[in-house]
Amino acid sequence: xxxxxxxxxxxxxxxxxxxxxxxxxxxxxxxxxxxxxxxxxxxxxxxxxxxxxxxxxxxxxxxxxxxxxxxxxxxxxxxxxxxxxxxxxxxxxxxxxxxxxxxxxxxxxxxxxxxxxxxxxxxxxxxxxxxxxxxxxxxxxxxxxxxxxxxxxxxxxxxxxxxxxxxxxxxxxxxxxxxxxxxxxxxxxxxxxxxxxxxxxxxxxxxxxxxxxxxxxxxxxxxxxxxxxxxxxxxxxxxxxxxxxxxxxxxxxxxxxxxxxxxxxxxxxxxxxxxxxxxxxxxxxxxxxxxxxxxxxxxxxxxxxxxxxxxxxxxxxxxxxxxxxxxxx
Length: 329
Description:
Strand content: 5-15%
Distance between the termini: 69 Å
Largest sheet: 3 strands, antiparallel
Number of strands: 10
Helix content: 40-55%
Oligomer: single chain
Number of helices: 12
Structural class: mainly alpha
Radius of gyration: 28 Å
Shape: elongated
Strand order of the largest sheet: 2-4-3
């Protein structure tokens, strides 16, 4: 006897490059058919039954909704994703709302599939959001579980315009159905592809663009638990790391206390974690340090060794912290 706790969807049905690629309506009806399997793994149903069991309606009235179900069943059959006959075993397009259909889900030559839990299926209230979720969840067990996707590819997956797909995907993000990591701008001036996942991205995984949206563009409580820095001092440090040139256009660089703050924040992050304000300050420091490390090394006139200024600053900050902590111990 079957014990079905999930809907099994072959990955070819989610791949926009295959002949089996399903629309949002087709994915939804296919999922309802999968749920309808009996203990013998058979599907005996009617268009009206499929309509009634679904928690998302395809039209504002039952009559139009059932017609949409009938049209979707035919399109699924035409794509060779399902097979169905009437109660007499005859192939037909001429069936009514309450006519019994015997349905089979097709087998595919590849065994890679995505498992959609019933609970997740029931919680999603928009068929396009369901489609978005499945497109992302398909990659859950691949690498770090992220799906990099452009707007134009989303449009092909959902079979809609760029403007519509932007709205639909962002709605799914806002609803917490999927999570987005916004692509940063690379050295060529182009924006990297957005990344998506069905589980949240951690602060140390998100891009600078996403970090700014979360912690800089939103109002956060400015509080800190650092022992040797006040909130005001940390605000000055954040400004120092974020300032590249002064009003005269001259290059500006962080000073020793700024590097000390970064090292203290790194240590506190490992031990007890950081407040949102502290996360923002640390990210500003890490981002500036990353950029400074790209600068070319220079020659030390005393040792005749090549070094990078940022590395020397960090080493001096470590020495200062050792002296400070030794003095206060």
